[in-house]
Amino acid sequence: MASCTNSQKNLKGCTCTYEPCSRKGNCCECVAYHRRNGEIPGCFFPEEAERTYNRSIDYFVKYHKSLG
After folding, report:
1. Are 43 and 15 a contacting pair, CB within 8 Å?
2. Over the stretch 14-68, which tens digit does the pLDDT of each residue have?
3. In Å, how far are 57, 58, 61, 67 from 64, measured between CA atoms?
4. How far is CA 37 from the centre of its chain?
């Protein structure tokens, strides 16, 4: 994995709760990883939705529609 010069700064705003994640603080790697898997990174979800670890686009859309 490529190093990220902003990793320490990025970690301050990282909302991912998946502890063994090797991409924390490396937003470019995180976005690329989730994009390859047809998913959305956890930082795009509110805390209660992020904790489900469901990163699917379908869940993202349904969750935000449910907010009205």
Report:
1. yes
2. 999 998 999 999 999 999 999 999 999 999 998 899 999 999 999 999 999 999 8
3. 11, 10, 5, 5
4. 12
Give the separation between CA 43 and CA 18, rounded to whole angstroms.
11
CA gyration radius, the chain = 12
Euclidean distance between CA atoms 38 and 6, whole angstroms: 25
Alpha-carbon torsion (10, 23, 14, 60), positive or negative:
positive
Asked if 18 contacts 53 with a C-beta cutoff of 8 angstroms, the reply is yes
Tokens of 40: 């959305």
Q: What does the alpha-carbon distance between residue 8 and residue 4 come to, in Å, rounded to a whole number?
A: 9
Strand, helix or coil for residue 39: strand
Task: Please tell me the distance from the alpha carbon of residue 25 to that of residue 43, in angstroms, as a whole number.
Answer: 11
